[in-house]
Design brief:
Structural class: mainly beta
Helix content: 10-25%
CATH topology of the domain at 7-83 and 236-241 and 249-301: 2,3-Dihydroxybiphenyl 1,2-Dioxygenase, domain 1
Distance between the termini: 21 Å
Radius of gyration: 18 Å
CATH architecture of the domain at 7-83 and 236-241 and 249-301: Roll
Number of helices: 4
Shape: globular
Number of strands: 17
Length: 305
């Protein structure tokens, strides 16, 4: 049985310097800083770290009722490591997706706010056959972002690279209870939005929570044909870039038992995490596990559950 997901809680983006990244997402996309977490050093074994961990983070939200925040996080202990992969075939959490009503203005804002790169606008084909104008950019740390034409200014999806699309779709449907809302077996695009000179090609399935299939935040599972899938998902919790995605649940203990029944890899027992004096809820209960390709996923128990 799939675990009962209340919401997609956030997508984590590890950055070099929280002030710089927070300003970039505020100025480029109008995201609002909602929740600040700033705990002291604590045991982060559940994160896969051998030493105490400490961070400074802001939950940034687009203001949409069904929106999902991006968790901008600067690791204080240990310090951030690595650089974001820039090849589109990278396995794991790969790119954030935004929509905007004015592509040209958004691109100008990104460059003024310190984007590491902003590529030219092109026609992008979406799962289901729809085509929209869009462009690719990189945040100050080089994390890839895709921006497409849309009615509302919002963060609308995250892309996850996988080695076997059928296997990954089955995992997210059967384990997490997500619903496939669009499928495409042969998408192609110019390489420019991806920072490449040659065209790219992939197959994709877009999933959403079953209760939000029309407009909710999407998870785009992508199996690349050109370039072929390569590089493993990041294996360090403090690696710069998109590292993990969190889901909100009511009963983390029963969800842990269900995940164990499914035999998911990398499953940790639930732990209590200190969120620091700035957070309205000073602690939370969380656990971590991996998808079939090693992408880090997290469950967080809803406060008061």
């Amino acid at each position: 049985m799939a675990i009962p997901i209340r919401a997609i809680a956030h997508v984590n983006l590890n950055c070099s310097e929280i002030t710089t990244s927070k300003s970039f997402f505020e100025r480029t996309f109008g995201l609002r800083a909602l929740i600040h977490t700033d705990p002291g050093p604590q045991d982060c074994t559940s994160f896969g770290l051998d030493e105490p961990g400490q961070w400074d983070a802001w939950m940034m939200h687009d203001g949409q009722e069904d929106g999902t925040p991006v968790d901008l996080l600067e690791w204080k202990l240990p310090k951030p490591c690595g650089t974001p992969h820039r090849e589109p075939g990278h396995v794991g959490l790969r790119r954030l997706g935004f929509s905007t009503g004015d592509l040209a203005a958004c691109r100008e804002r990104a460059l003024a706010a310190g984007a590491a790169g902003a590529f030219e606008c092109v026609d992008l084909e979406l799962p289901g056959g729809e085509r929209r104008r869009g462009f690719g950019l990189r945040d100050p740390d080089g994390v890839d972002i895709v921006v497409r034409e849309g009615v509302a200014d919002r963060m609308d999806h995250v892309q996850i690279g996988c080695r076997g699309l059928t296997r990954s779709v089955r995992f997210y449907e059967e384990v997490l209870g997500l619903a496939a809302v669009a499928r495409h077996s042969a998408l192609e695009a110019p390489g420019a939005p991806f920072g490449r000179e040659s065209p790219v090609a992939w197959s994709a399935t877009l999933l959403r929570r079953a209760e939000a299939q029309e407009t909710g935040f999407g998870i785009a599972l992508m199996q690349w044909q050109h370039p072929a899938p390569h590089f493993p998902a990041y294996d360090r919790a403090n690696h710069r870039g998109l590292y993990r995605m969190a889901f909100l649940v009511d009963d983390i203990a029963s969800c842990h038992d269900e995940l164990a029944h499914h035999g998911v890899p990398g499953l940790t027992p639930p732990v209590e995490l200190d969120l620091g004096p700035s957070c309205p809820a000073p602690t939370c209960h969380a656990l971590f596990f991996h998808d079939p390709d090693g992408t880090c996923l997290e469950l967080i128990e809803a406060p008061g559950s």
